[in-house]
Amino acid sequence: MASLSPCSTHAGESLGGRLPAPLQPLAAVAMNLWWSWQPEASALFEAVDPECWERSGHNPVKLLRDVSPVRFEQLSRDAGVVSRAGELARRLEEELARPFGTAGPANSARPVAFLCAEYGLHASLPIYSGGLGVLAGDVLKQASDSGLPMVGVGLFYRRGFFHQRLDRAGWQHEWWSRADPEELPLRLEVDARGAPRLVKVTLRGHPVRAQVWHCQVGRVPLFLLDTDVPGNTPVDRWITSTLYVGDRTFRVMQYAVLAMGGLRALRALGIDPAIVHLNEGHAALAALELARESVRSGVAFERALAEARQRVVFTTHTPVAAGNEHYGQQEILELLGHLPEELGIDQRNFLRLARPPDEDSFGVTELALRTSRSANAVSARHGEVARSMWRNLEVPITHVTNGVHAPSWIAPELQTLLDRWLPPAWRMGDAGAWAAVEGIPDAELWGVRNALRARLVQFVRGKAVSDRLCRGEPIPYAEAAARTFDPQVLTLGFARRVAAYKRLDLLIHDAGRALALLQGKRRLQFIISGKAHPSDEGAKRLVQRIFELKDAAGARGSVAFLEDYDLEIAHQLVAGCDVWINLPRAPLEASGTSGMKAALNGGLNLSVLDGWWPEAYDGSNGWALPVEGAQDEQGQDARDATRLYELLEREVVPAFHERDPAGIPVGWVRRIKASLRMAGARFTTARMMSEYVQSVYTLHDSPS
Q1: Does the pTM of the predicted model rise above 0.70?
Q2: What is the pLDDT of residue 630?
Q3: Is 618 exposed, middle or buried (0-12, 13-18, 19+ CB in 10 A)?
């Protein structure tokens, strides 16, 4: 069936043409992002040419294009490399041959269509910005592992999300790079004549064309629409250029291409989804596109919308106002004025579908809520907040707590340890298998944690020195990172999208206490990374404030801000940090999956009791800042900062340094085991996708 026919080894034929016959299996592996959650695949690509692997940004397609023919000839005579390449290709073929199961009414003939504005699958495919995209990428990977019939739909951003550079004052500057599809695991969908398959979406009164790129994620295809095609106006070619572009008009056009163009692309490919899953409100026009098709065939609008609604489910990801966008009604009509007529309704009734109570605007979240058969938040706490936010719409909102794709996020060293001590079912998301964590010898678990911290410190030393020299910092300050960052020192991480409600600056709320922690006999070290949106001046000032620490005596080598946060940096940090700090202004955190990733690597969370943490924290597996009654923001910040310092001074630092005669912090390791059991059993995508199938995708008489 066209819907779920994955790219086979033939997808890498053009790439494989550069390789000697014994190495051609590498091309098939490189063209399927399945490789990205197989540690042995990464190790093999690195072995091809370690320096080129680094220069490529760990991109196997670019690697195989750039490595010299002489090197390939050498490798083709290496029996070990040839055997490893053949074994990986064989495993991939076996994976692609596995049959799909069902997901409620969805099956391989009529799959789930998962629509999202961004996908964080690997750092080498830069079409993501943060947590929403990484969650979407993890969903596709888990669907592949679990055999869930699913196709992904998104946009191909040739400029992607911005890169970040900081100047010597700590002020963020942005720059963009242009992606070359020839260097990515993409193939263009073509028609019977071999021409690019195009779909059209009417915007601003004229048709805009989009071509469709196919990216294979294990067994799951991801289709990415791209308006940079001949025949479009220069403005139209720019529509899909940049992720989360600041211009409001471009954003609405992106959302229309994603929703209406995405479903038209599936239709052109012979795919008729049983379920359309909107991952956030960007694709809110999807139900109207389904209804439009029915209206064209003669069905009255009300019935057409009712039937479309039964196929659409919606996940809301944020209680923050900026994440629930509103547009002027007139600007929507200027962009989409043709749509009411195609739906067979007047403009007033069209606008009413997205109108917030008591406000004349067009809300994408309101539209998604009104045109979906079910809506869910992404944690229990977020469910409470979302129901309160949208109570005037009188739509039921449940919750499915987020999870993370364990094989993608658990460090290879820890995976090896888990394979030795846990039943194999831990890899399949079996919650019961994680109970065996208790039997891992403390010395072995602590040894892996030390190795992961040491690897992170080595990474930070190299990157921090490079970042500082690029900013024009003095050589002694640049060298301080390599000299002072210590693989034996308690290491705290804080990395995520920078926004005011994330409260990055609580770390330095009391500079004196912060410096005491950084300079004391039992000192600690901070590693911080994150990007502020180019239009968010307040978030940029938060980044700048962290730089106040760099000029404080003794702190020069104890605090590192790693520029240009991406998935590669995220993997390093969640694996190597001992404590993961999360300080959102409650109740504005929807979930917070970075903490789950840290927990799955044996890191301990110190977090405000918001998002997922209230469901996870039990007193034995980390630390919590309680959420108390409403008060002014300044008072809340002061209270939470004081509690943060107290926890670090009185509990976290002492626990890390309380060692037995063998040098093992027995109490700390006990917390690690409790955290691992909790995260592995309850906060993976295996559990999450099972819940989606059972409680969201499967039709019920009434919401539970």
Answers
A1: yes
A2: 64
A3: exposed
